[in-house]
Write a structure and sequence with these properties.
Length: about 130
């Protein structure tokens, strides 16, 4: 009984997430996603594929587990992944830029802003609008 209820809940959540994603991106020809290779980004990439051919972006230091995971999962999903490898100097610069933009130093916001800042110019650089 408990297992059936759990499956029903998962099914309902899946439909809500898919509907929300489809509504948000239904009119987009191109979708770009920051991609870690984790469960949440893999789900988002799978949903994005239903409305377009998503461009995935991953950032990290060379040889990091994050980049290895992103490459592995993107390959399994047969999706294009643009990897941006960052040096210590890059990260410090991105942190400085992010703190200026955010006008605060909140650890979570800073952690999220570095990959976003690192990827912000990539779509145009590779000829995409996403």
């Amino acid at each position: 009984m408990m297992e059936q209820k759990k499956e029903e809940t998962v099914e309902k959540l899946s439909k809500i997430i898919e509907r929300t994603f489809t509504q948000a991106f239904h009119d987009k020809n191109e979708v770009g996603l920051l991609f870690s290779g984790g469960v949440d980004s893999a789900v988002m990439a799978t949903l994005a594929r239903k409305v377009s051919e998503p461009q995935l972006y991953a950032t990290g230091v060379p040889g990091s587990k994050d980049l290895k995971s992103a490459r592995k999962v993107a390959s399994k999903l047969s999706l294009d992944l643009k990897v941006i490898e960052l040096t210590e100097k890059d990260i410090l610069s991105l942190l400085e830029t992010s703190s200026d933009i955010l006008n605060e130093f909140d650890v979570l916001n800073m952690e999220l802003s570095v990959p976003l800042a690192a990827c912000r110019n990539e779509p145009a650089r590779i000829g995409r609008t996403t």
